[in-house]
Amino acid sequence: MVPTLLSSGSNAHGQLGNGSLEDAHTFRPCHFLGCEPGKLPSGASKILDVASGANHTLLLLERIDGEQELWGCGDGRAGQLGLKYQESISAGCSSSVFRPIELDLDSEEYSYKLISASWETTYIVLASESRGDVLISLGADDFGDLGVGNAKGKGKRVANPTNIVKFDHLVVDGHSLPPSCPVTINSIPSGQHHVLVHMNVSLSDGSNRGIVVGWGTARHGQIGSVTNSDGKPLPFFPIPRIISVDDPNDPVVSSSLGIQHSVLLHSSGRITGMGSNRKGQLDLFPQSRFRQVGCTWNGTYAIVEVEGSKLRIYAIGGDSHGQLGRGGGRGPGIVTFEGHFAIPTFLACGSEHVLTLLESELGEEVWGWGWNEHGNLGIGTTEDVFLPVKIWPPGGGNGGDEVIDGIWAGSGTSWISIISPDDVR
Fold it and tell me: Whereabouts are the RCC repeats (predicted)?
């Protein structure tokens, strides 16, 4: 069974991949180069991940043979989709259709592992059994986004089309990383202009440690305390710096980033918040056991265990567009879903809107709320949504044989992967 990818929302540069440059107020099937609308490329079996920046999108696809492919669409003028992509767009090819992303790699030993996208920058993790993981950055470097030092500043382009982010300058608990130390990258979430990487490294004393490193915008403490010699916060830090070293008994398992804050989730269910709390986005319910965390630009959301084993969604932070999903309620609180009992199983947080996958007595459903200026909630309107509404299945239908295979949210964009009973090739 092969999924269909649907998208809605902001689309001025074709970043929805639906064959047009107009915003989509309802979910429409994505187009892949050389394929019928709504069909994945030949041999592709699953959408592993969607990474959506300001105006560009990447997809990581898995083939039937287990190999991964990288596809992209939208704006590539900052180099965020690679030189070959932009050359094809400049030659008249459409930016509104997903096409393969080709990178100039020195070795065929590497395979695609992880993707992430900030405002105009792309991050790609490549895996090699013999060499460990490699992190590549592409695109703009407005605030040290590329992680390679010598930031060019806002609006200036980078001469190097493909950059390798280095970690061999790091010192962990007094131990340096050996030369050519293989690393294993577990996750790489990105905010608008800052990045966190959770990784495992082998130290010079022979031990293996999990660490979280970050770079990019830093003024509010979103990548830890970064100051100059006078003790004043630096606006940004252009190379990886250590933010935390894992407690072996309670390591970091995931993280999520807003514009000016970051949240780490530990295996015990506790969380660590860093950065700005001007919107209350770090008032993080310390009494709760967390299952998943997500961040909008100015908010934090979590699936938490309450009353022993019940799962609920808590929301805290900015609410100018209904992002908290409580009709204008202030402070931390539970998001409720009108009409029937539902169990939240996954959160996808965009710039200022939220999607959640629910299991209910009626089947699987996707609900959403928050900022909707570009129709990014896919419900046919552009009015902000202050209370959760069901957005899939559309038209008030109930979940049934159709399987929801994934949900993602970006900068004014939303994505749903579905598998229908007749989607068999």
Answer: 3-63, 210-268, 311-360
Domains of the chain by residue range = 1-102
Q: What is the pLDDT of residue 158?
A: 55
Torsions phi, psi for 154 (to 5 deg): -60, 130
Distance, CA of 133 to CA of 182 (rounded, Å): 7
Share of the chain above pLDDT 90, in %: 73
The total number of residues shown for the chain amounts to 425
Residues contacting 161, CB < 8 A, separation 6+: 79, 82, 83, 104, 138
DSSP state of 190: B
| pLDDT, tens only, 82-127 | 999 999 999 999 999 999 998 876 666 889 999 999 999 999 999 9
| 422: pLDDT strictly greater than 70 | no
pTM score, two decimals?
Answer: 0.94
Secondary structure (DSSP) of 64-95: TTS-EEEEEEE--TTSTT-HHHHHHHHTT--S
Q: What distances in angstroms separate CA 104 from CA 82, 85, 136, 162, 206, one per listed residue?
A: 9, 12, 11, 8, 33
Tokens in use for 96? 């509104």
> Which one is predicted more confidently, 423 or 317?
317
* Closest to 33 (Cα-Cα) out of 23, 19, 46: 19
Distance CA 323, CA 316 (A): 9
Tens of pLDDT, residue by residue over 156-176, are: 555 568 899 999 899 998 888
Spatial distance between the Cα atoms of 218 and 213, rounded to a whole number of angstroms: 13
CA distances from 42 to 33, 234, 333 (A): 11, 48, 45
Q: How many Cβ atoms from other residues are within 10 Å of residue 33's Cβ?
A: 15
Residue 307, exposed/middle/buried by CB under 10 A (0-12, 13-18, 19+)? exposed
